[in-house]
């Protein structure tokens, strides 16, 4: 039997499973019953799915809106510092540091400086044409015309994003693709809005039974 607790061994096994039939040395399976084999494949898929899911989930200690904003900030910083927002070790280390030191997002990044340096390109797709001002948090949610809430965007992106905030537009699957300048500004803004509203310690603002990126945009009437 395969050592089911051993992920590298299981991955090696899946490589064999994915091989074209003609490449497999049939002797490998000579002593394994077909049912055992299927059971092992099922277990293997379960472990790989569970491990991949874990990779994209906030750490278990992320329990409040405040924690989640720090978590998202840590990912953003990982993207700049080590070129990978998914570097779990770096994200975890940065998250703890931000949280332990009670660092306010406004102290972390100078998004407006970046904005000045890159104001003639669409913040979402790098297009140089048909640029207009875009509200990161849409007017539908809050009437905030300050520079903190604006980026340049091309007409196409502006129309497509429409009345959604960045996470609502990119959704969970593409959350790592939200441009750095947009995400930095967004996190800074929503931290301030939740602080004003007294919801930084909330655990589920959209009442769907869990805390995730979609709770961040629930800012209601300020
Ligand atoms: Zn664009």
Task: Describe this protein's structure.
The protein is mainly alpha-helical and 222 residues long. The protein folds into 2 domains: 7-54, no CATH class; 57-216, no CATH class. Helices cover 50% and strands 5% of the residues. The protein has 10 helices and 2 strands. The chain has helices at 7-18, 34-56, 65-82, 88-100, 105-108, 111-117, 155-161, 166-170, 180-197, 213-216, and strands at 131-135, 150-154. α3 (65-82) packs antiparallel against α9 (180-197). It is globular and about 65 Å long. 27% of the residues are buried. Zinc ion (ZN) is lined by residues 122, 124-125, 127, 153-154, 156-157.
Parts with pLDDT < 50 across at least 5 consecutive residues: none
Number of strands: 2
Residue share in β-strands: under 5%
The proportion of residues forming helix, as a percent range, comes to: 40-55%
Structural descriptors:
2 strands, 2 domains, mainly alpha, binds zinc ion, two-stranded antiparallel sheet, globular, 222 residues, single chain
Helix/strand layout:
Elements (H helix, E strand, L loop, with lengths): L6 H12 L15 H23 L8 H18 L5 H13 L4 H4 L2 H7 L13 E5 L14 E5 H7 L4 H5 L9 H18 L15 H4 L6
Antiparallel strand pairs: 1-2
Helix pairs in contact: 1-2, 3-4, 3-9
Zinc ion (ZN) binds next to strand 2 and helix 7.
Question: What's the gist of this structure?
Answer:
This protein is mainly α and 222 residues long. It is built from 10 helices and 2 strands, in the order H-H-H-H-H-H-E-E-H-H-H-H.
